[in-house]
Amino acid sequence: MSRNDEHEPRDEERARFEARLEGARQKARRRAGVLAGGPGELARDADDLYDAATLEALGVDPARDLGFPGQPPFTRGVQPNMYRGRLWTMRQYAGFGTAAESNARYRYLLSQGQTGLSVAFDLPTQMGRDSDHERALGEVGRVGVAIDTIDDMRTLLRGLPLDRVSTSMTINATAAILLALYIAVAEEQGVPRGKLRGTIQNDILKEYVARGTYIYPPGPSLRLIRDVFAFAEREVPEWNTISISGYHMREAGCDAAQEIAFTLAAGVAYVENAVRAGLDVDGFGAQLSFFFNGHNNFLEEIAKFRAARRMWSTIMGERFGARTDRARALRFHCQTAGMTLTAQQPLVNVVRVTVQALAAVLGGCQSLHTNGFDEALGLPTEAAATLALRTQQVIAHESGVADFVDALGGSYAVEALTKRLEEAAYAYIRRIDDLGGMVAAIEQGYVQREIQATAYRYQLDIEERRRVIVGQNEFVSDAPPVPVTRVDPALERDQIARTRAFRAAHDGPARSEALARVDAAARGEANLMPPILDAVRSGATVGEISDVLRAIWGEHRETLTI
Fold first, then answer.
1. Lowest CB count within 10 Å: 76, 233, 346, 489, which one?
2. Are 213 and 207 in contact (CB under 8 A)?
3. Distance CA 232, CA 318 (A)
4. Terminal CA-to-CA distance of the chain, rounded, Å?
5. Which of 110, 292, 139, 135 is nearest to 201 (CA)?
6. How remote is the C-alpha of 319 from its chain's centroid?
């Protein structure tokens, strides 16, 4: 064989690579044109084959874009050893009826191996209405626990190890009040505020877009969030002051790229708001956390989490000058996708939840909730909640995936999807910046319209059977009924009676003076958290404190968008 013959196989291999590279570049250019008009579900437009040419055409630089776990840009995870050091927090979202009933569920879940608490509040509590308010009728304790008073919080937290577990509270418009109640009760139990660990959702912007449990207009709402940031940095340093949430926007119908973009754009708005007030980005930035949806498209979801981490590290470093790794690291909780659960053949939801949870773990979550299979029908029964927790435990202890740090890092398909989602999300963020930022984009209805359009396309795909939903539009069969949780209407009457009795017992000058101090702080520039904390200790209710702020700030009126 001549020297030229020796090189022929290598030359042919190079020629094939160059042909693949050119094809990949052409497809990348075509896809970029599509993304300019708004992306759909990227994984549904998958390449036939992913290889080195795909990544080269996309401009992926492993040294720059992947790095190492625990180091910027955190694509591969926020901890150097990830779950080899400590498993994610298994935090099952729960709460219904009264504080006593919810406390019993938390005790049960902790006894079954849950490692963190997650509190669901009823709609009146979320909207700043006490249980005896006329607008609370029929909603008390229905979708979460009713918390009106410090006595309710005492009952909710009775016997729980607040010095050893972290507590997440899904609360937004009234987040400052619920945090104050939690601090007050913890200190009564002998746990100092400096040792409390947990999260308040406290993300009002997504409420205007997708969820609706807002009270005040954006301006004063952002001021209240900023006050929580400043107070917690000094007083509750282990607490996450916000959980910037893409979850609810995904539930409303946005796709993976939009979930990243709208979540991070909201994060930018919160950081800008705090920086303008003179807060140190490396201080409050270390207490920011995120909340993402765990949807069905397995590889796309893993890529989504990786892209979000990389983007947030870049945004915090380049846009806001954050210097510390802690302030640049995107730490997130994941909940499996409620909107993917079907009332038809509900046991099939166990499979959906397992796939979604595995994607969250392989995507590097710090905390995880797995939905009960019956949640398309009602609040999860104890049996369904237990099985959901067992799903996490099997993934953690039997699947072997926790033994690897970023097991899918370097996968051609995963890295290509990560890059494409990153590009699509940045395109949305640039558009939001052009509109004046996330608050302006919401006020103009841009974010809402984008979500509506994507949700409409998704629904058409199901109805026209371009997208298979097992048990709903394909593989349809009868399934036996499953038990459904029912909340006893008598619980509402009992809660109303307790709230009225508490209010009567605390009707005195101490409560009135404390509420007056909340009023004065809201009208001025003082931080609202100290007077709110004094007010809950004096016996002021969630509704009373909210009403003081309503009287000053007014209520937000939704801008309808179509």
1. 489
2. yes
3. 25
4. 72
5. 292
6. 23
Radius of gyration in angstroms for the set of CA atoms belonging to the chain, rounded to a whole number: 25
With contact defined as beta carbons under 8 Å apart, do 120 and 94 qualify? yes
Strand, helix or coil for residue 289: strand
| Amino acid at site 25 | R
**Token reading at 81:** 């050893």
pLDDT, position 31 = 57
Q: Which residues pair with 290 in a beta bridge?
A: 244, 332
Supply 227's token pair.
Answer: 């006050």
Within 8 A by CB and 6+ apart from 408, the residues are 302, 362, 414
Three-class DSSP category at 532? helix
CA distance 477 to 166: 42
Query: At a CB cut-off of 8 Å and minimum separation 6, what does 378 contact?
Result: 484, 485, 486
For the segment 143-171, what is each residue's pLDDT rounded down to a tens digit?
999 999 999 999 999 999 999 999 999 99
Kindly list the domain boundaries of the chain, sorted by start residue: 62-464
The pLDDT, as a whole number, for residue 35 is 47
Q: Taking residues 35-56, report their average pLDDT.
A: 73
Rounded distance, CA 305 to CA 310, Å? 9
User: Could you identify the residue written with the tokens 């049960």?
Assistant: 108
- For the stretch 373-395, pLDDT in tens is 999 999 999 999 999 999 999 99
Instruction: Tell me if 202 sits within 8 A of 242, measured CB to CB.
Output: yes
Among 147, 133, 134, 143, CA closest to 98:
147
Where residue 47 falls among pLDDT bands split at 50, 70, 90?
confident
Among residues 134, 147, 139, 102, the alpha carbon closest in space to that of 123 is found at 139
Q: Strand 288-294 relative to strand 242-245: parallel, antiparallel, unpaired? A: parallel
CA distance 212 to 560: 12
Q: Return phi, psi of residue 292, to 5°.
A: -120, 160
Residue 330 and residue 313 in contact, taking contact as beta carbons nearer than 8 Å: yes
User: How many residues appear in the chain?
Assistant: 562
pTM: 0.93
Fold of the domain spanning 62-464: TIM Barrel (3.20.20)
**How would you class 345 by CB atoms within 10 Å of its CB: exposed for 0-12, middle for 13-18, buried for 19 or more?**
middle
Distance between CA atoms of 388 and 90, rounded to whole angstroms?
Answer: 10
Q: What is the mean pLDDT of residues 58-78?
A: 96
DSSP state of 73: T
Q: 185-196 in b/e burial notation, b at 16+ Cβ within 10 A? A: bbeeeebebeeb
Angle between helices 99-111 and 382-397 (to 10 degrees): 30
The model's pLDDT over 136-149, given as tens digits with 9 standing for 90+, comes to: 999 999 999 999 99
447 Cβ contact list (under 8 Å, min separation 6): 209, 249, 262, 432, 438, 441
Q: Report how far Cα 101 is from the mean position of its chain's Cα atoms.
A: 25
